[in-house]
Amino acid sequence: MSTQLGGQQVLILSDKTQRTIGRDAQRMNILAARAVAESVKTTLGPRGMDKMLVDSLGDVVVTNDGVTILKEMDIEHPAAKMMVEVAKTQDAEVGDGTTTAAVIGGELLKKAEDLLDQEIHPTVIASGYRMAAEKANEILAKIAIPISINDDKMLRKVAMTAMTGKGAEKAKDYLADLIVKAVKAIAETDNDKITIDTDYIKIEKKEGASIEDTELVKGIVIDKERVHPAMPKKVAKAKIALLTSALEVKGTETDAEIRITDPSQLKAFLAEEENMLKDMVETVTKSGAKVLICQKGIDDLAQHYLSKAGIMAVRRAKKSDMEKLARATGANIVTNLVDLTKEDLGYAGIVEEVKIGDDDMIYVKDCKDPKAVTILIRGSTEHIVDEVERAIEDCLGVVPAAIRDKKIVAGGGAPEIEVARGLRTFAKSIGGREQLAIEAFADAIEVIPRALAENAGLDPIDTLVALRSRHAKADGTKFGLDVFTGKVTDMLKQGVVEPLKVKTQAINSASEVAVMILRIDDVIASSGSHRGSDMPPDMGGMPPGMM
User: Fold this and answer.
1) Where in the sequence numbering do the catalytic residues fall?
2) Of 122, 129, 109, nearest to 28 (Cα)?
3) Distance (Å, rounded) from C-alpha 158 to C-alpha 183?
4) pLDDT for position 531
5) Residue 304 burial (CB < 10 Å; 0-12/13-18/19+)?
6) Which of 14, 73, 446, 486 has the fewest Cβ atoms within 10 Å of its own Cβ atom?
7) What's the angle, vertex CA 384, arms to CA 413 and CA 177, rounded to 5?
8) pLDDT value, residue 4
C-alpha cells in the first residue's frame, strides 16, 4: 500500500501485505463464516448425520456434536475462527445448542449479504439485527414454561432431548435418570438461589460391557489400586483419612552429608528411619482411620506397617480427586500428618477395589450426603465411550441450566417459528431500512426447522408452511416438527424440551458474531499470516485456505 505526498511515493504497508477493502472484504468474511456453518448443518437434530474427523496422527473421532467438530477442524480463516468461538461460548455457557448457534450465525450472514447487494449499509443491518435479537429474547421469555428443581420428570425430558440423535440415544431413558440424580445430588440451595458446580460430577470411562452398564456412584471412583496386596480389598463403614503429604522419611532441606564410621551407627540410622515410619503409621491408626488416601508417595516399609494394621491405602491420588473425596465423604484434607485426628476423618459405606476390564479401580461409595458423585461410563469400544461422554457432558450443561433459570421451551423448531412470527409483526412497527434487517433476521432464524426437515429427508418448504399455519392459531406456540413422523406435533406432550438459556444464548451469540463480521470492511493480512510463499496472489487479501 502506498500514497502520494508532494509527488513522492510513500510506502505505508509492506509490499508483501495483502489488503482487501469494502465489499470484497465483506464477501470473503461472509463466505468463510458460512462455510463453517454449512459444515455442521447436516448434524442438526435427531436425524442429523455424523462426521468422522481424522487428525494428523491418524486418531479418529466420530461425532455429531457441533463444538467437537469445529474444535477438531483445522480452521485457518479469521472470520471462520469467529464462528468457532460462537460454538465454544455456547458450549461453555449451556453445554448444548452449539450447532444451532453456528447455523443461525451463518444464516444471518447469508441474509445480510442479500441486503448488502440491495445497497443497504452494514451499520443499518447491524442495528436491525440487534433490535431483532433483543425482541427475540422477549418473545422467548413469553413462551417459556416454568419448571422447578423437584420436577424430575421434566428434567429427565430435558436430558433426553439433549441426548437424542447422539451415540447414547439407545440408553437415553436410563442415562437421563442418572444425570438428573447426579445433578440434584451436588446442587446446593442458598435462600432461593441454586448453585450447581458440575466439576463435582466426576466422569470415569472404561471400555467393555454396554452403555446400559454405565453407573452412578454416590461417591468417588479413583483409577488407582491398593498399594500393597496384603491390605484389605473391601472396607465396610469406612473411616477415611485424606492426606496431601508423603508417608516417607524426608530428606534434609539443605545438602547434607552423614558420615558413618562403624556398622552400629548404620544400624542405628536405619532403625531410626524405621521408627519414624512406624510413628507415622501409628498416627494414622490412632485416628481410627481404616482407609488412607494419600496425594503423594507411601514408603514400602510404611505400606507393610499399614497392611499389618489392616488399613487400606492408596497413593498418588490426583488433587482434583482429593477435593471431590472431601466433598463426598465429609473428610478434611490434612496437610501435616501430625495434625490428623478422628474429627478429620470422612465416612463411606463401602470402600473396595474392583477389577473393571484389565484395571483395578477404588470405589468410595454409599456416602451419607455426597456433594460429589461419579458417573462411570461403559461402552463396547473407545469411540462409543467417547461419544457417550460427549452426550453426558451436554446433558450436564442443559439440566443445571434448566434448574438455574427455572424456564424451558418446547423443541423441534417451535421456538424459532414463534420468534420469526413475532419478529415479522415487530418489523412492521419499526419502518425504515431496519425493517428489512429485522425481516431478514426472522427468515434466518427459520433455518433451524428447515435444517431439521432437510436432515430428516422431509420437504423443508412444506414443513415451514405447516409450522407457520399451526403457529398462527391460538395455542400454536408449542408445536414443532416431529422428525420421526414428519408431522407438526405438540412438542411439550412429546417430551421434546430444552432450557430457555440454550435458545437465548444461541440467538445472542449468533447475532453478535454476525454484526461483528458485517462491520469489517477492511482486511489487512501481513505476510506472516500466510502458510507459504507459493500461495496464489488473488485470494482476496485473506490468509489462503478457509479450512
Assistant:
1) 65, 98-99, 394
2) 109
3) 13
4) 43
5) middle
6) 14
7) 60
8) 53
Q: Domain 220-369 falls in which CATH fold?
A: GroEL (3.50.7)
Which value, to the nearest 10 degrees, does the dihedral of the CA atoms of residues 336, 337, 343, 348 take? 110
The helix-helix angle for 500-518 and 122-143 (nearest 10°) equals: 180
Phi and psi at residue 359, to the nearest 5°: -110, 150
Q: Which residues in the chain land under pLDDT 70?
A: 1-16, 167, 251-254, 269, 527-547
Question: Taking the domains of the chain in order of start, what are their residue ranges?
Answer: 2-146+410-529, 220-369
Give the CB-side neighbour count of residue 523, counting CA atoms within 13 A. 26
Neighbours of 104 (CB within 10 A): 29
Partners of 479 in beta bridges = 490
The pLDDT of residue 12: 66
Taking a C-beta distance cutoff of 8 angstroms, is the pair 319, 239 a contact?
Answer: no
pLDDT of residue 6: 54
pLDDT at 505: 92
Query: Cβ distance 393 to 94 under 8 Å?
Result: no
Task: Read off the pLDDT of residues 234-254 as tens digits, 9 standing for 90 and up.
Answer: 999 999 999 998 887 776 566
- pLDDT digits 0-9 by tens, 389-437: 888 888 898 999 898 888 999 988 999 999 999 999 999 898 788 899 9
Do 139 and 123 touch, CB atoms closer than 8 A? no
C-alpha span between 362 and 449 (Å, rounded) = 47
CA dihedral in degrees (508, 513, 516, 519; nearest 10)? Answer: -100
**Would you tell me which CATH number, out of the four given (3.40.50.1110, 1.10.560.10, 1.20.59.10, 3.30.428.10), belongs to the domain 2-146+410-529?**
1.10.560.10
Q: Is the pTM higher than 0.90?
A: no
First to last CA, the chain: 27
- DSSP per residue, 329-353: H-PPEESSGGG--GGG-EEEEEEEE
